[in-house]
Amino acid sequence: MTIIIDAIVWIATASNWTGSGGIWVRLAQHLAVTAGVVILACLIALPTGLLIGHSRRGTVIIPLCAGAARSLPTLGLLTLCGLWVGVGITAPFLALLVLAMPPLLAGAYAGVASVDPKVVEAARAIGLSPWQILQKVEIPLAMPVIMEGIRSTILQVVATATLAAYTADAGLGRFLFTGLKTRDWPQMLAGAILVVLLALCLDALSQYLQDRYSQRRLIATR
Question: Under a CB-based contact definition with an 8 Å cutoff, are residues 158 and 152 in contact?
């Protein structure tokens, strides 16, 4: 119990929020890495998943990617990337990108594949092109599943981004590594608490945006 109180005191100490290694800077770094990884992963994985779900071609890729992502040891992948590109933020960015794309790919594919075939056939019957069917029918209907995949990916990346401190002086994970190295347990626990709080805030924001989208879709269909 004492270490928890000490960790809260460490977070509440004003001097720990300022400076180049303060909480504000580490928080901004953590958010920047998370946002960069998620955005790039979305740009790569979502169009691919949508195309596979729409065409039903290359569906074997989905379980292979999902299985590979689950079996990859995160720290091992990060170490491999570090040996490949060297010390810095590039290594954790690449490792996180590899881990972030499979759930997005699977979510986009599952969302489009779950659309009722009768709806697609009806859209085709009224003369919509394949691109129009994807854009105006499949994507809107698949959006709840896609957004859930994005939400899950954000949480995964936020938690795993703590490992960015393994090869780079960046992110909230720096408090964990510094605390472990110096046996400053309050600082280490404080870093973990900050990551949890950040994940909860981002999850709440994602849920809010998802609910807002669902409400707008409901209003639009009335």
Answer: no
Each residue of 178-212: pLDDT tens digit?
Answer: 888 888 888 999 999 999 999 999 999 988 888 88
Distance CA 179, CA 24 (A): 18
Q: Give buried/exposed letters for 185-218 (b at 16+ CB in 10 A, else e).
A: ebbbbbbbbbbeebbeebeeebeeebeeeeeeee
* Cα–chain center distance at 178: 25
Q: Determine the straight-line distance between the first and last CA of the chain, rounded to whole angstroms.
A: 54
Largest CA distance in the chain: 69
Helix (H) / strand (E) element for 8: namely: helix 2-12
Candidates 34, 48, 68, 24; CA nearest to 156 is 34
* Contact predicate 103/111, CB 8 Å: no
pLDDT in tens, 17-48: 988 888 999 999 999 999 999 999 999 989 98
The CA distance from 174 to 30, in Å, is 10
Q: Is 85 exposed, middle or buried (0-12, 13-18, 19+ CB in 10 A)?
A: middle
Model's pTM, two decimal places? Answer: 0.86
Instruction: Write the burial class of residue 104 (CB in 10 Å: 0-12 exposed, 13-18 middle, 19+ buried).
Output: buried
Phi-psi region of 19 (alpha: psi -120 to 50; beta: other; left: phi over 0): left
